[in-house]
């Protein structure tokens, strides 16, 4: 957690200070704060866990990334929510996960502007600022608070109609990056539907949500963060949301 909090302090020092923004080849924004945060986190992790591999958003090779079948690898999004960060919104921060022999075993998400840090270790539970984290007990699709994002990509893939049940039931569109997953793990919302994410966007969240009692899968229901598809819920609503996206495969 110390690496995440150190990166958070770096980010807060530049928050709402008009940082310069560049665009990556994939059309997403990046700042020097993203790069500096990754360098800081990587250096801290290499000091404490020499020999572990490292996969970070700002230094990742091009092409599709798959599971790390053997050994240990850190998976890092140094500043999740860059768009929010540059617009002065507080929903940003570092996400750090540890993958061991293909299984995600540790996750940390730190939201410095809101002074909230959530973490989990496989088999040891999830905690927000030291207090146990627990997903909601909502089992009704009609009453549930579901967050989804990236309508454009659903449209581009011809899957727009899959979102109709969500729109018809007056669910809450919008996405606040890592903070959305924190809210799910704390029972503040009940489900998340996302398309187009990279492993570093969701690796830490999978450990945290599962240890808080929920589930996070791809659209097929597989426990993977490598397909760019996310269905995450309190567990009671997982089958329902998977049914919503059953045509999106």
From TrEMBL:
PROSITE patterns: IMP_1, IMP_2. Mg(2+) binds at residues 57, 77, 79-80, 201. The keyword DNA-binding does not apply. Pfam families: Inositol_P (PF00459). Its cofactor is Mg(2+). One of its GO terms (molecular function) is inositol monophosphate 1-phosphatase activity. It comes from the Bacteria. GO terms for biological process: inositol metabolic process; phosphatidylinositol phosphate biosynthetic process; signal transduction. Keywords: Hydrolase, Magnesium, Metal-binding. This is Histidinol-phosphatase. It comes from Handelsmanbacteria sp. (strain RIFCSPLOWO2_12_FULL_64_10).
């Amino acid at each position: 957690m110390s690496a995440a909090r150190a990166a958070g302090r770096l980010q807060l020092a530049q928050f709402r200070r008009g940082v310069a923004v560049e665009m990556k080849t994939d059309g997403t924004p990046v700042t020097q704060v993203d790069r500096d945060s990754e360098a800081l986190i990587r250096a801290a992790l290499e000091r404490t866990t020499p020999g572990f591999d490292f996969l970070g958003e700002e230094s990742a090779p091009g092409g599709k990334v798959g599971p790390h079948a053997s050994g240990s690898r850190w998976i890092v999004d140094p500043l999740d929510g860059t768009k929010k960060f540059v617009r002065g919104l507080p929903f940003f921060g570092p996400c750090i996960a540890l993958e061991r022999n293909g299984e995600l075993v540790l996750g940390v998400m730190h939201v410095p502007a809101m002074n909230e840090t959530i973490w989990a270790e496989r088999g040891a539970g999830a905690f927000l600022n030291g207090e146990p984290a627990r997903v909601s007990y909502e089992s009704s699709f009609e009453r549930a608070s579901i967050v989804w994002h990236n309508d454009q990509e659903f449209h581009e893939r011809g899957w727009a109609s899959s979102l109709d049940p969500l729109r018809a039931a007056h669910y809450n569109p919008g996405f606040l990056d890592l903070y959305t997953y924190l809210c799910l793990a704390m029972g503040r919302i009940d489900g998340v539907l996302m398309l187009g994410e990279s492993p570093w966007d969701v690796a830490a969240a999978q450990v945290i949500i599962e240890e808080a009692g929920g589930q996070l899968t791809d659209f097929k229901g597989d426990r993977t963060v490598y397909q760019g598809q996310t269905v995450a819920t309190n567990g009671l609503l997982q089958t329902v949301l998977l049914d919503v996206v059953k045509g999106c495969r």
